[in-house]
Amino acid sequence: MTRRHFLATTSAAAASLPSLQAAQGGKLKVAVIGHSGRGAYGHGLDTMWLQVPETEIVGVADADEKGLAGAVTKLKLKSEQGFAEYAKMLATVKPDIVAIGPRHVDQHRDMLLAAINSGAKGIYIEKPFVRTLAEADEVLAAAKAKNVKISIAHRNRFHPVLPVVQKLIDDGTVGQVLEMRGRGKEDQRGGGLDLWVLGTHVMNLACYFGGKPLECSAVVLQNGKPVTKADVAEGAEGIGLLAGNEVHARYQMERGMPVYFDSIQNAGVKEAAFGLQIIGTKGIVDFRIDVEPLAHFLPGNPFRPVKEPRVWQPITTGGIGQQEPIANLGKNVGGHLTAAADLIAAVRENREPLCSGEEGRTTVEIVAGAFESHRLGGARVALPLSDRGNPLAKL
Asked: What is the pLDDT averaged over residues 191-203?
């Protein structure tokens, strides 16, 4: 997203779209799906629409009775606009956009297919996308058949500083890119769960700069020992079969550079771990996930010691060390408003969102690739994978 595109989309007029049904006042109708106690509404995927002038929330579904009552109040709806079943809500309100909030991934496939078949033209969904590549293939085929735009809530992917950093790479400021290195949050979820729920944020950014992953080699450990079948169990947050409290993975990317992702349970703190670094011969670009400024630059060859201290400089849409010229940028990105504007524009322009369903499938491929490589003794495996199920099922 260029700065010009960012400004244009975030200030778009609240006009109805010819391809969409209009709610009262010409606004786009948004239906929200949540599930209190099972992933709730993600990171604000319900209330974000109250701040989007082009939209109006017309219904919310939550299978939890108490949670539904709270959601109706929070979203400023009437009691009849709350539904225990999302299928009934979709059939009743006939939304233009569906927001799928639950963080528990086992619900995503069914919710996505229901939203696609409801006649909606846009879907905004919490990450991770789905549990397996087979589910991703099914959902994307259905969306393509009905021309439904799917946007994944990797909100940093919508940040307008990304093309600024890409220009720094292209013009040689960073030097030759040697590698990228990412780490998860490395809290109690460290290892396999961290790769799924937080590492997908990191690897989504890595794919922006590196292109699609072509191959993966990885090892997954449990308390320092290679994971075996005995370590495999149903994971938290509806992930499906999961194992390992330590992951070390290497990906070869489409644009030639390797990307490393590592996560060790309770090995780090949020301020020092959760992010991605692009390491070049003339400096390092550092991204801290969900922090503003998102990016910083440390000039100089990182492998050549110097006497003088090097200072990290913020990278804004105005450049290295410049004040951010876009007002409320952190709030708009963190509150999903840039993502909402992009999804609306994607439907209007009949293009894919900046963080599309295809990118969601790629992050699932990245996770599956790590477990498949471990299953094969750390061997390099080509991506995309031929087996579209969960590799741990075959361990």
From this structure: 97
